[in-house]
Prior knowledge:
By secondary structure, the chain is α/β, with parallel strands linked by helices.
Amino acid sequence: MKPRIVVLGAGFAGHTAALHLSRLLGRRAEITVVSPGNRFTWFPSLIWVGTGTMPSDEVHFKLAPVYERIGVHYIDARAVEIHPGDNTVIVEHGDGSRNTHAYDYCLNATGPFLNFAGTPGLGPQTGNSWSVCSVEHAEQTCEQYLRIVADLARGQRRRLLIGTGHPTATCEGAAFEYLMNVDADLRRRGLRERAELVWLSNEPEPGDFGVDGIEVFHSGVLATGASLVRSLLDEADVQAVMGAGITKVEPGKAYYEQAGSDPASVEFDFAMLIPQFRGIPLQYVAADGSDISKELTQPNGFMTVDGDYTPKSYDQYRGSDWPAVYRSPRYENLYAAGIAFAPPHALSKAKKAPGGAVIQATTPRTGMAAGIMGRTVAQNIVDQINGRPPSHHARMSEIPAACIASMGNSFWHGSAASIIMTPVARDYERYPKYGRDMRLCTLEVGLGGAWTKRALHSAFLWKLQARPGWPLIPE
Ligand SMILES: Cc1cc2nc3c(=O)[nH]c(=O)nc-3n(C[C@H](O)[C@H](O)[C@H](O)COP(=O)(O)OP(=O)(O)OC[C@H]3O[C@@H](n4cnc5c(N)ncnc54)[C@H](O)[C@@H]3O)c2cc1C
């Protein structure tokens, strides 16, 4: 009988895994992807949808035809239960009906649960604040943003609040890109002078981005991401509120706590605030029917894999804490990759506000990292099918991150910060001074980055649709 592999989630991690499984195993395995909505979303371009500089139909494509072409079975449903004792998953279709699917290997790549409810009053469902974390959210955000643009065009003054909507939110990079694209768009429209932009973030300092920032050498001189982002904010005339955790949102007002200050609030006419991410609420069930979700996940709902989750203080964190093969320590045929796996700890420093809130930018698992993990898990499953232990590693303290932060989507007037850091998670055992290989850390700002970001959009959508030559484009 062919080995049955079930991939839950068709995002950066799951879809990449499915492509590689199909490439590596072909018809030697039965590969099934379960994901709701029949859609792959290219998240990096949602910031352009949110400012109206890219139509939303350019950032996603239908999965079913791709899977049909590469011989992968696709189920348009969401997983609700994983039974690792019985090797089955229970999936729920749009009409509420449920089915059971058996597997020999399972990858949980279900991404984040957007926990708007973690901050009272936050999110599109309240109408108080907006988000760019899905196609629909970015479309709604665009509609609200264009209303503000119309007000500005009529001569009114408006305040736009952009940043993180929870003390432990992540994805600061995406929020920062949205901020800089709003700034660029308002300048292009000649309306910037009437708009006040406020950047409110849980990062301890500008440019931290949840990865403890970056240092680079420019012509032998040390430069930091913090100083660059500070100067970008200054140049753009953006007011920055750093180390701040939003605790409540009301119409036109956000309340926040900040280390070293009394609780405060900020008023706004428009807000785009990223929510806290948690694991997708899946139930894990043992062979005897008992609920083992707490044993297989961390308190944030993400799945425990082969990392070291022992509680430690910040200065005790080690590169070797990070998972290598992304397999459950309890079930040899169950993996989690991308945002779905639980990071052993945050990379960014925590601050405590006098009100008690812990303010900490939590670890981002970017698209590139998620793709690398998806490919790694695919290779490890192939190892196991071939009777070998998993041999492919992709620790976040080993892999690089390449990010291009857009600061304006225009062929002639665009700009972007191109950032490469190696590794993502600092490893002071290997690189005692900075925790990173400084030969492989760069940071450049300019028009070239804007072109690269646009080119990556097209190149990756080509790759992810499994078009000819796709394996040549790296994750
Ligand atoms: C606005 C924005 C901009 C970004 N920009 C960048 C960038 O420029 N560069 C970069 O590297 N990263 C960027 N990121 C981060 C990047 O999008 C994430 O790192 C990446 O999407 C994580 O991949 P993933 O596969 O873990 O999750 P996702 O891509 O979110 O995929 C999760 C999948 O699981 C599915 N799913 C959910 N629930 C279930 C369920 N119960 N059962 C089955 N399937 C389920 C979802 O439908 C989806 O298909 C950005 C993110 C955002 C929000």
